[in-house]
Structure formats: structure tokens, C-alpha cells
Amino acid sequence: MYRSLLVWLGLCSPLLFLCSGLAPFVLVAGGGVLAAFLALILLRSSGPAPRELAENFRNIVIAHRGGQRSRNCAGGAAEERGPVFPENTLAAFRWASSPACGGADAFELDIWLSKDGVPVVNHDADVFRHWDSAGLVGSKTLAELKAMRPLAKPILPPPVDQMLHPTVKTVTPSTNSNGAGVDGDDGPQSSPDSADYAYEKTAVKHGHTEIDARYLESERMPTLVEVLDMLEKEAPHMKLMIEVKEIKRASLLCRTLAAMFRARPWMYSRCFVAAFNPFLLWRLRREDSRIVTSCLFIDRWTSHLQRNARDNRITIPWWLRYNYPLLWLVDDLVWWLGTNPRGLRFLGASLSACEVKALSSAQIRRDRAAGIITSTWCANQQLQKEWLLHQGVTVITDTQFGGGTSAMNPRTLLF
């Protein structure tokens, strides 16, 4: 935050304004951000959801996109894992809800709106990575989406950090016997280049990419209503994390979600909504203040935003794309909203969520003192999961569902 303030003050220097020629862009962009922030203050939400609802999601294990079998799940060695199913499908969610999974309390999914306004489940804006078609989810009707079949070999992307910063490498810190970093503050972490960390990598997400033939015939892109029906009728013990990916029609999706919660009152205690867009969460809380929400935050949030805009075929004006002072200011504002209890209360969020590599013990202690539920993705190492659960954190993982081999009970909390 201080970096952005210093940059902002520096650009406000008349001499720098005259030399740089950026004055019109900085003034217009800065004035817009300030006006939007003041408007949110005046129209703020009614605070977090009732605590008794939010506490249902503390210290649980969530199967990321339905999870996947691995050596650490029920099933043993790789050759005994059983058939591989497509992510974000009813087959994945049924597996996560079954005893075979070995310990998930909930599963996570991602939603978009189809062309005809139906919430459907898919991770990417484009369907080409997992389905035998191409094009944006929002450009296809529900009938067209239901006609697609899963790919036998999904197209997995490189790790996110390599896409944004191909030359950057992160060193994995050492850990001591209790799983904390050697400085005792950051807990177990892993490099983005490690196959055990990056959930996008084949070695972690699938173990292999060959989808079993039975699922090529049976699975289609599910709607959110179909998942909710399955959750209500087949898995009454499970909870659900709904991550909103929609960008272009976010307001419509917020209204649709709020209507779903009102029509299914059981969702208030078993489902929560997460998003990278903090203002989408604010909008949803304006629709229904009882919905539990989670603010997903990452460093370089504007880079993530620009990548999503590109994936959704949205053109960002050059004066905004290269307005680095404004981008730095927005990055720090979003980081403050996601990591500071006051920012989370402003958004009405009950949960904070960041990548496991960015989570520290200081963040966990700060959230705990403020009554915020800390969650993190994707803890794909056994030691990570056990240490985090021991701290009372909600863990989102691709593969770590079993009890592990540690003698420590991971849910014997330290507080």
C-alpha cells in the first residue's frame, strides 16, 4: 500500500506531470478509482453473513474441481487408482462425496453463464481444454454445451507463474519437523515449479491425462442446478464452494445465485460463494446478506485480470493496460481488501483465500483474531495439508484427502 501511495504522490508532482505527459491519464484513472471507492463506502454491504452459517466452512477439506485420485488417496499405488474422470463433472463430484475419496468435506466448482443465461460448470472461459469443441462458454447455448463430449486427453496449461513470468523461479524454503518454515513464520511452502505444488501440472492434477472411456460417454458439462440436486439428494453430508468466474454478466449471475439460495434454504449452511473479483462479492451481498462469501486474492491481481480479459476476448484500452501507477494502486487495494480484516468486513466476506505459497502464520493469526476463516489453495503435499488443518485453516486440495501417516491429529487445533 505504501508503494502505491508513494508512486501516486510522485506522479502528482507538477514537474513530473510536465515531463511525463501522463497527467490526463493519471488524473482520469485516479479520479475514477477514487469516485468508485467513495461510492462503495456510501453503498456498503450489511457486513458478513451470520457467524453460525460461516462457521460451517471452517477447518474443512475441499476437493478442488472435484479432486482426483492419487497415491495419497484411497486406492494406493498409481496402478490401483482406478479410472480417471474429467474435472468439474458429476462423476468427479460423486467421487469426492464417496468413501473412496477418503476424507473430503466439500468440493469446489467454477461457474459461468451460458448464452441463454444458465449457470454451468467449467473452469476456463473457453471450452477447448476439456471438451471436443471450442469457443467461449458464454457464446454457446445450454443445448450446445450439453452436446459436447469430454476429451480423452485434456489439454493442460503450464503453471500460472510460468505463463505470467516465464523466467522467474522460486526457491523452496526448508521446513522443520513441525512443518513450519525455518524462520517459524511461513509454514510449509513449495515452489511454483514443483510438481507437488502447481495444480495445473499433470503429475498433481491427474497422475495421467487419459480419461476413462466410460466417462467419455456418460459425462456432459453440468449445470449448477444439476450439481445442487446431486448434493441435496445423494450427498447430504457434503458442502460446496462455488467460484464465480463470469465477467461479462456478473450482475445477472449474482441475481441468479441469490434466487437459488432463496429457493433452497439448505444452501445457506452448506454452500459458499468465492470470487477473485471483490466487487462481485460486494454485489452478491447486496442481493442477499445471508450468503457466505470468500474473497480470493493473489499478488499482481491486475495481471490476473488482464489474462482473464484476454481469455474472454475483452480488449483493454492501451492507456489502461500500460498505466502502471494505476495498476500498482489497484493491486495494493485488492491485496488490502483480501488480507486485512477491515477490508474483508467491508466486502462482507467471511473467508479469506490465497495461494498456499502466499499464506503465512501472521495472516492466519490476524484472521483468527478478527473471526475471519482462513482458506488456501492448493495444498497438494501431505505435510502442507496437516500443518494447515492443525492451524484451523480450510484446505483446498487436488489430491490430499486421506488422513496421512503423521501421528499428529491435524484437527487438534493450537488455539
Describe the protein in words.
With 415 residues, the chain is α/β, with parallel strands linked by helices. It has one domain: TIM Barrel (Alpha-Beta Barrel). The protein contains 19 helices and nine strands. The chain has helices spanning 2-11, 14-20, 23-42, 51-54, 90-97, 142-146, 160-164, 202-205, 213-218, 224-234, 250-263, 267-270, 278-287, 301-311, 318-321, 324-339, 341-347, 361-370, 382-390; strands at residues 61-63, 106-113, 119-121, 239-244, 271-275, 293-296, 351-355, 373-377, 394-397. The protein has an eight-stranded parallel beta barrel with strand order 1-2-4-5-6-7-8-9, surrounded by five helices. Helix 18 links the parallel strand 7 (351-355) and strand 8. Helix 11 crosses helix 13. It is globular, with a radius of gyration of 21 Å. Residues 6-21, 71-80, 159-208 and 404-408 have low confidence and may be disordered.
At the fourth level of CATH, the homologous superfamily is: Phosphatidylinositol (PI) phosphodiesterase
CATH architecture call: Alpha-Beta Barrel
Radius of gyration: 21 Å
Biggest sheet character = 8 strands, parallel, barrel
Strand content: 5-15%
Q: How many separate domains? A: 1
Secondary structure class reads alpha/beta
Distance N to C terminus: 30 Å
What value does the average pLDDT take?
Answer: 79
Q: Provide the spatial order of strands within the biggest beta sheet.
A: 1-2-4-5-6-7-8-9
> What is the general shape?
globular
